[in-house]
Each structure stands twice: as structure tokens, then as C-alpha cells.
Amino acid sequence: MSKSLTGLHANGKLYVDKLLETGAAAQRAAATYGKDNVVNGSMGVMRDEEGALICLPTVEALFKSIEMQNLISYSPIAGPQDYQDAAIRHTFGDYQPEGYIKAIATPGGAGAVSATIWNYSDYGDTVLTHDWFWSPYKWMCDEIGRKLDTFSLYTEDKIFNIASFESKVNEILKKQDRIVIILNTPGNNPTGFTLTDAEWDAVLWVVKENAKKDKSITLLIDIAYIDFTHDPVKVRAFMKKFGDLPANILVTLAFSMSKSFTAYGQRTGAVIGLSSSKEVIEEFTHVTQVTGRTRWSNGNTGCMNIMAKIYSDPLLVKALEKERADSMAIIAKRADIFVKEASELELDVLPYCGGFFITLPTDNPGLACEYLQKRNIFLVPLSKGIRIAVCSIPAAQVTGLAEQVVESLATTTRK
Ligand SMILES: Cc1ncc(COP(=O)(O)O)c(C=O)c1O
Description:
CATH superfamily of the largest domain: Type I PLP-dependent aspartate aminotransferase-like (Major domain)
CATH architecture of the largest domain: 3-Layer(aba) Sandwich
Number of strands: 12
Radius of gyration: 21 Å
Bound molecules: pyridoxal-5'-phosphate
Oligomer: single chain
Shape: globular
Mean pLDDT: 96
Strand order of the largest sheet: 2-8-7-6-5
Structural class: alpha/beta
Helix content: 40-55%
């Protein structure tokens, strides 16, 4: 290649995206062989039993009826006030904690996560998350000179590994004065893992103990899949625990309309900051808006107006809750089929508590996924497992899938 023209920091960056690549390969296969002959378990989007992308009917009707002015106009950087209020109401549900709270519009949950990492860590800092994580976290860190370190999400018994969490937080805070901790729960991508309320108490104990050492701690909770758990109302109960934390702990929540409102491509979300300190939230409001203004400017006006409209009408909120519950029932049925068949075949699967995906740990995910792709089954290879997007595979195609996976593992392990 001729001499690179990039700035030094951008030298050698390569865009390799297994998730999107697998999705594109599945679509090409469907065009060639017909969609009924292709199992597309690649992307985190909901498809119905015929394989069509689901749009929640209430959202679809609002998109079709939105007035042109409300679609095309500019918005304030933080988002219209009624959108901010709606994002906060949706995020906390019945469990809004005490404290100062502010929502700033972002392009999806991705914008919320990246803005928090950017503003609450320094160049060279280590950011912490669990070892089963959404791969863009790593790219977001690499892109701006942060390192991503991980703790073990599970003990050998596959329960939350609080000891690993504690030791990593302690270790990192021996070397730096501030830390961003990303926790993707409930319905973790890729595992479906969800912290229980008791586990949250233990997490907050560790965080508070470290805060006593005069450190600054940002707890970034990625709630992209919160509405696709078995009880989306009660699953929010942990949020009450964030009231009255010390002023050197900031909680940010990455709210996204992508999954909860089936608005994936509309790029609408918010980062919601919560603190016991007014000054901390004022600072959060400033720094996050500057990031927005300089990176993407305002959010998607049309989608934000739709969100505001939904929350201005309790009947629309209720209708959407029902539509989501219906979609979740479809996903849960598929997950049940897979988990049951996997258990009959003694296939090791990480505990599924909700969300869009099921993951099985394995040593050779790449080879096994290649083997499956040759049979028109598209699953995503992770660094130490295979992710199955049950949100996207019709139940009829989930049936028998565990057996195919077992066969792929047996064949590729023998090689
Ligand atoms: C764990 C997780 N967080 C955040 C997101 C962000 O999604 P978006 O930027 O579309 O809101 C996703 C999307 O797949 C995700 O899986």
C-alpha cells in the first residue's frame, strides 16, 4: 500500500465487523436459496415467524402519521424537553430513584455508551466491563486511546462472579483515579445474563467502598434489552438503589429506542445521568452536550417526537407494552425450544434470563460457525463462544438447531 495518509492515531485501523458481516452473508444466502432455506441467527433484530422484520404496530402507525415539520426540523442538542422527559420515564418506569437526573439525546445506545466513555475517562485509562460483552465497547475504547479490561462474568457454577468484579475494580483503581465500569444488564448481549437485586447490592457495595478512597466512579449501565425480559416492570427495581449514592459516583444509563421501539436504523437514544449532586449533573449536561454538538449535532427529530407523543398518551404506552410482550413471548418460546433441546444433547449453554441472544461457550467458534454457514446456518462467532440471535429465527427453524450445533462442534473439534 502507498504511504498512509491518516493521522498517526488512525494508522492501521481495520474495520472488521463479524456481526454485520454475518448478517450480510445471511441475506445474500436468503436471496440465492430462498429465506426458508436459510437460518439467520446473526443480527439483534426481531423477526416474525415468517422471517420478516417486526415493527411494533403502534410505532409503525406513528411513523406513518407524523407531520413533515415534526420530521425534518432541527432539535435542541439535548433533545426536545418532552423527549427527555419521556426517555427518563421509560428508563426508570416505576422505579425512579432520588437524585438529580438529566437525559441528553444520542444516536442510539451506541452514542450514549461512547459519549460516557469519552467524557468520564482519560487518554490511556482502563475501562472495565464483563468478559462476555458487546464487541463495539472495545472499538469505542480503542478509537479514543482507552484500554478495555474485563472481569469474569461467571463463576465456574455460572453465577455472577462478584469476586472477579471486586478484584478488577480494586486493581484498576490502584493505578488510576477514575474508572468507567460498563455493565450490560438486564438481558446481556450476548448471554442473556441479568444481575439479580442481591447481586446489584454486592456490586454497589464494591463501588461504594472504592468511592471512599476518593476515586471518581462512573457506573454505565447499558439497558438496550431491558424491555425484553420476563417482567419488564419489576426488572427495573434495581434502579431505586441508585438514589443517594456519594457525589463521586455518577450513574449513566444508555437508553436506546432501537430494540424497545423497533427503531434500529433511526439512531435514537439518550444518555441519562443520575447523581446525588446537582453540580455533577450540571457538569454532565455540559460535557455531554458538547460531545453531541461536535460529533453528531442533534438527534433524530422525527423519532424523538414519536417517543414524546407515545408518552403524552397513556393508551399508546399501554398498547406498546402489550405489543412488546407479544414479541417477547415469541422470543421466549424459541429460547425454550433451544435450551430444552440443548440440555437433552448436553450442549453447554450460558444461563438465559432474557434479551435477544443465547450463547454457548466453545473453544473453536470460528470453525464451527464456518461449518454451519456451509449448511446455510448463520450464527455469530465470538472470541470464546457462539451467539444465537433467537430474536430472529422462526421457531420452526430453532427446532433441531441445537443438534446442528452439536454436529458442527463435533466435526470441527475432530479436525
Ligand atoms: C449491548 C448493546 N448495547 C447497545 C446497543 C446499541 O444499539 P443502538 O446504538 O442501535 O441503540 C446494542 C445494539 O445492538 C447492544 O447490543
